Amino acid sequence: MLDDIKKTLWATADKLRANMDAAEYKHLVLGLIFVKYISDTFAARRVELTVRLTDPADEYFYHDAQPGDVEAELEDRDYYTEVNAFWVPEPARWEALRATAKQRDIGRRIDDALTLIEQENPKLKGILDKRYARAQLPDGKLGELVDLVSTIGFGDNPGTARDVLGQVYEYFLGMFASAEGKRGGQFYTPASIVKTLVAVLAPHTGKVYDPCCGSGGMFVQSEKFIAAHGGRTGDVAIFGQEANPTTWRLAAMNLAIRGIYFNLGREPADTFTRNQHADLRSDFILANPPFNISDWWHGSLTGDPRWVYGDPPPGNANYAWLQHMLYHLKPSGRAGIVLANGSMSSSQNSEGTIRAAMVEADVVEVMVALPGQLFFNTQIPACLWFLVKQKTHRKGEVLFIDARKQATMISRVQSELTDAVIERLANTVATWRGEPVSHPRPAGEGGGEGIYQDIPGFCRSVKLAEIAQHGHVLTPGRYVGAEEVEDNDEDFATKMQQLTEKLGEQMAKGAKLDALIRQKLGGLGYEF
Predict the structure, then answer these.
(1) pTM of the predicted model over 0.85
(2) Which of 245, 282, 402, 406 could make a disulfide contact with 476, Cβ separation 3.0–4.6 Å?
(3) How do 236-240 and 206-210 pair as beta strands?
(4) CATH of domain 184-480
(5) Model pLDDT, residue 491
(6) What is the DSSP letter of 452?
C-alpha cells in the first residue's frame, strides 16, 4: 500500500511543478516534507502529554491544575527535547501553514516558519533552505503542494509518522535523481549499491563515517540494516561531510527525520582541504565519492599525513579518497568504497605505485566488479573496494568477485542488484572471512552451505604473490576465470581431448572413403 501511496504522491507533486526545473523543485518538496515531519512528531508528543498530564495514575499528572494550566504546561519545550522531538513554535506548526496555504504570501510564511524553527533548534541552524518566497511556481501551486504534503503521515504515532515520512523522503530523492539525470545523480547513490556496501560491512555498532555523504543514503541504509538485524539505532554514531551546501542540507534533514544522531560538520566543506573530522577513527566507512575528479588538489595537501602509501596525483582524486578512508579507520575498522573501474588498473602518474603499496600492505580485502547501468548519472563502469586497516583473517589474500552479469534491468536504461544477488555477495564475503551467514544458499553459489569455495567466473581468493605477477592490477575478471558452461561441466582439457579424438576418427573414415573411391575409379580406367 505504501508503495502505491508514494507513487501517487510523486505523480501529483511532479504535475504541480509545471515548468520548474526538478533541481530547484526538489528543495521545495523535501523541505516541506521535513517541516511536516517535525510538526507531526511535535503534535504526537503534545497529544501524549495531554493524556499524561491529566491522568492521576501517571507520573506527569499535573496536581491542582487550574483552568489553562495544562495548556500552558504543554508549551514547556523540555517535554519535547527529552524525547528528541524538535520544538516547533506555534506560527511554524503545520496546521498554521496549512490554514494559510491559499494565501498569496504562503511562500513568505513558510520562509518565516523555517527561520523560527532554526532559531528554536540550534541543531537545525543553517540546514533549512528558505527559498519559498522566491519560488517560480505558478500562482496557487505552492499552496496545492502544501495540501498534498498534508496527506502524508497517517495517525498520531510518532514511529509511524517517522517511518512513512522517511520512506517518502527517500523515494522522492531517488525520483528527483532520475528526473534530473546527470545532476541529480551527484547527490544520490542507487539503493542497491548502498545495500550491497551495508550488507558486506554489516555496521551494527560504533562510528559510521562517509566523507562525501551526499543526501545521506549510506546512513539511512545502515539504520535499516541495524533494525532488520534486531539492533538499536542508538548503538551507531553517524559522522559525515559534504561540500555541496544544498546537498548537505538534504542529508541533515534525511537523518533528522529518522531521529538518528549525526555530526555532518559545522558547515558544508571540502573533505580534503577542510577535514572537519580530522581526529575521527571510525569502525565503518561507506562512501561513493565523485569519480575521477581532476580539480581537487591544493598545494597545502603536499605531504599530508593521510597519504601513507604515496602522494596521489593532482589530476585524479581516486587514490586520495582511498587513502583518506584508510586513514580514518580504527585498527579493526572496515571500509566500502564505490569507484570507477579505472581505479583497479590505472598506472598513470603514481596510481599504480600507490595501489601496489596498498596491496602489499594487505589492506585490500575484497574487490567487486559491478554491472553497468546502475547509476542515474554515468555509464562509467564501477567497482567496489573493501579495505581494512588490519586483517584478522585470510592474511595475504584478496577476494575477487565478478558481479558484472548479476544485474536485473528495471527500465530501458536502468539496472539494479536484486536482494537475492546482494545476499549472495554478502554471503560469499562472510564465508570467505569465516563468519556466519544468516541465510546459507545452495552449494555452488558462493558461500553455499556456509562454506567458502571459488566459483569459476564469479569469485576467487587470490594470494598476494599472484596479484604481484599481474602488476598489482585488481580487476576481478583477470582472476576469477571463465564461467563454467551450465549444460556441460567437462573441463577444457577433457573437452579438447574428446574433440581431437573425434576429429581423428573422422579423418580416418575420410581416408578409407578416399581409398575406396580411388579403387572404384581405377577399375574404370582412371589413373591417379
Answers:
(1) no
(2) 402
(3) parallel
(4) 3.40.50.150
(5) 47
(6) -
Cβ atoms of residues 474 and 355 within 8 Å: yes
Distance CA 467, CA 469 (A): 5
Q: Which secondary structure element, helix H or strand E, spans residue 400, and what is its range?
A: strand 397-402
Q: Comparing 2-180 with 184-480, is the CATH topology the same?
A: no
Which residue, chain included where needed, has cell 564461467? 483
| Rounded Cα gap, residues 131 and 408, in angstroms | 39
Q: Are 398 and 462 in contact (CB under 8 A)?
A: yes
**If 0-12 CB within 10 Å is exposed, 13-18 middle and 19+ buried, where does residue 136 land?**
exposed
Enumerate the domain spans of the chain: 2-180, 184-480
Q: What is the mean pLDDT of each run of 10 residues along the chain (528 residues)?
A: 78 82 84 88 89 90 83 89 87 94 94 94 87 88 91 63 72 76 56 89 90 84 72 82 87 81 90 96 93 92 96 95 97 95 92 97 97 73 94 95 87 83 95 81 56 94 97 95 52 57 70 73 64
Q: Which residue has the cell 532554526?
A: 118
Name the nearest CA neighbour of 344 among 359, 330, 355: 355
CA distances from 236 to 225, 378, 486 (A): 12, 32, 44
Count of beta carbons in the 10 Å neighbourhood of residue 192: 20
Sign (positive or negative) of CA dihedral 14, 15, 19, 24: negative
Amino acid at position 294, single letter: S
Contacts 24+ apart (CB under 8 A), 125-130: 126/249, 126/267, 127/248, 127/249, 127/252, 127/253, 127/256, 128/31, 128/34, 128/249, 128/253, 129/27, 129/31, 129/246, 129/249
Query: Domain 2-180 adopts which CATH fold?
Result: Ferritin (1.20.1260)
The three-state DSSP-derived secondary structure of 232-288 is CHHHEEEEECCCCHHHHHHHHHHHHHCCCCEECCCCCCCCCCCCCCCCCCEEEEEEC
Query: DSSP character for 229?
Result: T
Asked if residues 398 and 461 have their Cβ atoms less than 8 Å apart, the reply is yes
**What is the Rg, in whole angstroms, of the alpha carbon atoms belonging to the chain?**
30
